[in-house]
């Protein structure tokens, strides 16, 4: 979620008033804003996407709730010591959180372990351990529409009789200390992005948020009118018409068996009725195609922790496979491929399969990704129910990612086309009329330059390095992962360095290369990549032959509040994942909206950005998905490129020989070994095209006017990538609710008129 203060002032239309009031108190609002901690309660794009969606849902007047866990410790703070990433705990609640309100009156029990008893009346889950879920509510204000939605985060609390109720031999002190065991559930965020780690505590977290949330939803459904907790409705027929639940990846997949457990075991609905209601309630968004990221929970673990849920999953699977067997008799391989249970070695539950079977809609997050989902990853399921599969291209909120972070550009745009674009970003197309307007071109360039100067000052303050603000700011910020190919960027840096040294007199377009992002603490290769970037920076930044032509900076502790600083100052946005690996990306959209040009592969939303702006207004290079597939078929041979490209060979040899690590020549052996022998993401195969494309970038940067015209065409084409558009599509195609752009009356206005304006339909 990042910081809340400035976003709240903007959405309430109070920013100028607050700035002025605080100024009159002799304080500086910007200084105050810097004191607030980021709420870093997710990992990479998936968590930030949820935050953008909350902003858009409130702005569109949808009755929507965002549910999650109130982690005591969010994503770790990253320190760089001697070039290595070191993690520190993110104690973000140390000084309290003024935006949250604890709601102990809505505390709910969540059960774990125990056993299942079957009888004539049905199944009973008994002898469980209970943990209490305490909700904390954070307001989510819409943009200038007097709507405030709720983000409800659950915190784990031990019941007061914890470890004292059972025949305890009177070790009261130990019993109280053991409350920590229950409360550890919401202690810390697992810091993996695009990687599955099958730990018991993680499964506990996933079930904890799901069980508390479903009870909360059903309580709200049963309450006849606002504020009432009396049970009035007992018929669940209308449940899917009143409630839509969107599963953000498979992490909350246990919601499917949990809702079935509530319907069948507690509410005593027949299975078929319960299953129909469940399927119509849930929809599933897939966020990755990397096999190592797919959740596959061991059956033994689920049986121990959630025995009744395992039985329900088996029953779902049995009926699912019976259905498939009836359609495809004797096709045992199809049954194996489509089963929710993977046999062979340890039996595992494929959570993506559970989500597909238990949902009425499945979507990817960019056109190319949704195609890959349909034709490769889940092809058997798409063949069975093609109408279930959709695309919903991701978006970003223009409130935080333009108004808040780039007020200079936002104001410049408003002067030309009015202020309405903030709620309807498609209006940015009106900027096409000004592509040839010399004054506008100069003003856009001026705003960018001011942002660069400001960021350069920030870098000098934080990193004690002198930055040339007229150099090209070439920025690569995102989680560190092999598929995102920060290594390819690193090879380009080394190549530029070698070219400067080879011919110091030759014209070189000065660059400041900024790379930032966190590596999962257990991801050895990602941590080596960070060390390599810092080792290269050390050499490049201290070589007098290079001077101010090339500077390399590793941006420490990349997070939302730092993104808000670096993105508006960026000239070149690096989006260089191997085609077919980045589901969508959203940083790419933020850079586009803030006047950077993109160098990128035809992957994720880059494809649609090129479609909107025209491919000639992006720097597109490298293999397409088809080329990658063909390379796999023929076998990727890294040596082929190494032997054929002298500059690549030189760069790789320098890393290998210890040129960048003279005290430890073999430091990067693992990286080199990976690049030659098991590089799944084919860095060498795209190196030549990347370097050539970068030469075109430098050439264009010399012509400020031509560069800025492309920038304007990009901004004018960025309208599609508002999360408002994305949410309207979810609302219409999946949730079946109508967004409303009505401004509801403020609390101090008369309310009679508001009665008939209530949009009917589902709560998401």
Automatic annotation (TrEMBL):
It is an enzyme of class 2 (transferase). Its EC number is 2.4.1.1. GO terms for cellular component: cytoplasm. The modification N6-(pyridoxal phosphate)lysine is found at residue 590. One of its GO terms (biological process) is glycogen catabolic process. InterPro entries: Glycg_phsphrylas, Glyco_trans_35, Pyridoxal_P_attach_site. SUPFAM superfamilies: UDP-Glycosyltransferase/glycogen phosphorylase. It catalyses: [(1->4)-alpha-D-glucosyl](n) + phosphate = [(1->4)-alpha-D-glucosyl](n-1) + alpha-D-glucose 1-phosphate. Residues 741-764 are annotated as: Disordered. Gene3D superfamilies: Glycogen Phosphorylase B. Pfam families: Phosphorylase. PROSITE patterns: PHOSPHORYLASE. GO terms for molecular function: glycogen phosphorylase activity; pyridoxal phosphate binding. It comes from the Eukaryota. Transmembrane segments: none annotated. Keywords: Allosteric enzyme, Carbohydrate metabolism, Glycogen metabolism, Glycosyltransferase, Phosphoprotein, Pyridoxal phosphate, Transferase. Homodimer; enzymatically active. Interacts with PPP1R3B; recruits the phosphatase PP1 which dephosphorylates and inactivates PYGL/glycogen phosphorylase. Allosteric enzyme that catalyzes the rate-limiting step in glycogen catabolism, the phosphorolytic cleavage of glycogen to produce glucose-1-phosphate, and plays a central role in maintaining cellular and organismal glucose homeostasis. Belongs to the glycogen phosphorylase family. This is Alpha-1,4 glucan phosphorylase. It comes from Scytalopus superciliaris.
